[in-house]
Amino acid sequence: MKSAKDLEIHRSNIKDESVRNELFKRISNLIRGTAGNQFSHKWNRIIQIASDCTYFLMTTFSMKQTIGEEYIGLILVQANRRTLPSRMRILLLILTQVCGSHLLEYALKRWLENMRRIDDLDLALKHERNEFRSRIATLISFVGRNLVLLQKLFYVLMLLTGAPYGTISKWIWGSEYVLTRPSTIGNRFNVMMKLCLILKAVQLSFRAFIAWERNCEMMKQEREVQRETSSEVPVSSADCCSLCMDKRRNSTLIWECRHLFCWNCIWQWTVSNESSNSVACPLCKAKFNPSRMIPLQNYDPE
Quick one: pLDDT at residue 288? Predict the structure, then answer.
């Protein structure tokens, strides 16, 4: 048996994708009808993963062909083309294909968050920014935000090189496709398919380049915001309003205890806590008459 060609693998993947989408649609409608739209929308990604796992466990893991493989006449074998892959290899292949992109997206997101915390700490300690770490953070952000686009580009490049794998997961675990019957695809159609794949690769590459430029601009803006935030002078406790925990605006004095607050803050406090024409100070609980509050002119902290 000879290795499957790119067009046969692509047709098989399209068939399998249509069946998986139909299965996911029916399961989603069933869950939506029993648990409601809100539950279905909240757990949409988990439902999709469970749907795909169900499809591959009923076909590939059970040592049977998928609908797309049976439609084209493909068999999944190990790289030596002599033996079928073991169940453990198939299970790892299925988990990688179904959950790999979601796990990678989650891992990249956490990694980027940790790198941002390190950058914030460096800025707080007045350390110079590590340019190598900044470039790595830009790359991680680009991959995380454009994971689907990069998967499509890798898939098209894999078809162009004639690799008989079909998916990234099969390439990782050393499994490939072989044909069980003669190919019915002519050379003219094969050439047309190659031209379409080349055009698709150019299109995806251009989209990836635009996404990279946009991502670099976004990361640059984020760093500028971090730098501006870290350069702000912290508000001292003497200039801070104890109610809003921010710099005082329109400073107002409570005559009885000499404590200062923002006019809006202390006024809202008196309206919500006034009892028998007296209010307790938010700090010392001393009773005061709201009519004796004194707005101070030209006293706000700079």
Answer: 84
Task: Return the SS3 of 280.
Answer: strand
Q: C-alpha angle 174/180/184, rounded to 5°? A: 115
**Contact predicate 34/47, CB 8 Å:** no
Question: Which pLDDT score is estimated for 226?
Answer: 66
Strand runs labelled E in 41-108: 74-78
Sign of CA dihedral 191, 196, 197, 202: positive
Phi-psi region of 285 (alpha: psi -120 to 50; beta: other; left: phi over 0): left
Residues of the chain with pLDDT under 50: 232-233, 235
CA distances from 199 to 62, 190, 191 (A): 37, 14, 13
All structural domains of the chain = 6-231 (no CATH), 238-295 (3.30.40.10)
Report pTM.
0.64
Query: What does DSSP assign to residue 302?
Result: -
Cβ(172)–Cβ(151) under 8 Å? no
Among residues 98, 72, 97, 63, the alpha carbon closest in space to that of 177 is found at: 72
The CA distances from residue 30 to 26, 33, 35, 58, in Å, are 6, 5, 9, 20
d(CA 294, CA 251): 9
User: What pLDDT is stored for residue 39 in this prediction?
Assistant: 86
In this predicted structure, what is the pLDDT of residue 233?
A: 47
Would you state the structure tokens that stand for residue 47, as one six-digit string?
């439902």
Q: Element (H or E) spanning 53, and its range?
A: helix 44-58
Q: What DSSP state is assigned to residue 174?
A: T
Asked if 54 contacts 23 with a C-beta cutoff of 8 angstroms, the reply is yes
